[in-house]
Amino acid sequence: MLESLLRSGGAFRPLIARDTQLTEASVSRILAELRSEEIVEELRRPAPYVGGPTALVTLSNDIPVAGIELSNNRLSFGIGGLGGTVDYVERLPVSPQLRQEEFEQLFSDSLATMRRWTGTRGIAIRQAAFSIPGYSRTHANPIFPWDMERLSGFLGDALEGVPLAITNSVIAQAAFHRYSNVAAYPAEGDHLFLFVGHGVAGVVVNETAPIDAFSPFELGHMVIERGGLACRCGHKGCLEAYTSLRAISTIVGVAESEVLQQGDRFIDLLDLGRDIRERLRERLFLLGLGVGNALNLHPVSSVVISGWPSLMSDADRAAISAGIDESLLGGFDAERLKLSFIAPSIGNDPQAALYYAAHCFVRAGGLEAKAEPQAVLGENA
Question: Reduced to 3 states, what is the DSSP secondary structure of residue 133?
């Protein structure tokens, strides 16, 4: 039920009963319990039809969650609500070759600042999430070759008393797009979600499964040119080295840090001449090659791409289809494979981690997190 409310932003009881396949009596009983825990609230808002219900059920706006992201060469801390509001943000620049001990010091310093902010306001964090590129529960991280067991232990100790989830950056992005603007998301059913940002990563989205069960894959480290451009993973010729935000920033002549400041409309602010546009099309073609190869391994009928390619024109993005056509078994067929693009969400970290934290909160039912008396980030936390 909480998952349904997070996805919809609010619903009337009959719709909740339909989505959860519960009786309205069961919905009323569960909502009464959730109201007593101050997890949901009901707003006076008539249904858009005569004789309909007059109380819209929403998640409470007074449940703070924390999202922390290591991405875009910066460490970002944020605090917000379940509805996507952001009340606190701090971003610190980090080196692409950030060592684990350096991260731990930066994290501790930023956490102390966040504790002072929450402590003066009496805010109790109910759930925290940390997203990092390349993270996997079972494999080594190719982006940050750290000791993942040490990382988990450090974060658990630093955020003692606060429920914490660690996830891959692309999983957090999938959560952001699932919950932030459901109406604008073009795909239904199982599909490949591809995020092209500082890295290039994907996840096969199963609409019937919780996000934390998804398995990410680092598409950006598929080698497409032997001995090619150097990649941050240590190899040469990786797809990321040609198609990431950092790679194309050198083509358009804008530093990546400036791209992050300009955000989702940075392409609109540029005067792309024919030569630059042609070079970007070449990079989009390479992206298509990678997507086609990925689909050979895990066929799906729909691909949703988020990132700078979403800002290009339809004529430019046709290069992606051409790349898919050259690498996908059977070639690209618009009747067989739907290709969609959504807003790239450039520079808005740590909103993705905040949405993932909201997801984890509702997945846990919200009750356990509130019952933990130490779940407060204050001066004495």
Answer: coil
Spatial CB neighbours of 167, under 8 Å, sequence gap ≥ 6: 129, 130, 131, 132, 135, 212, 356
Beta strands in 197-319 (DSSP E): 200-205, 216-217, 302-307
User: 43 CB contacts (<8 Å, ≥6 apart)?
Assistant: 10, 55, 56, 58
Pairwise CA distance, residues 119 & 117, whole Å: 6
Q: Which strands make up the sheet holding 191-196, listed edge to edge?
A: 216-217, 200-205, 191-196, 302-307, 338-342
DSSP 22-50: --HHHHHHHHHHHHHTTSEEEEE---SST
Q: Which of 265, 248, 249, 251 lies closest to 344 in space, CA to CA?
A: 265
Q: Is the peptide bond before 142 cis (omega within 30 degrees of 0)?
A: no
Length of the chain: 381
pLDDT digits (tens, 9 = 90+) for 105-125: 999 999 999 999 999 999 999
Bridge pairing between strands 86-93 and 74-80: antiparallel
Q: Is 96 exposed, middle or buried (0-12, 13-18, 19+ CB in 10 A)?
A: exposed
DSSP string, 129-162: EEEETT--SSS--SSS---HHHHHHHHHHHTTTS
CA dihedral 267, 272, 278, 283 (to 10 degrees): -30
91 sits in which H/E element:
strand 86-93
Looking from the CA of 305 toward its CB, the CA atoms found within 13 Å total 24
pLDDT class of 47 with cuts at 50, 70, 90: low
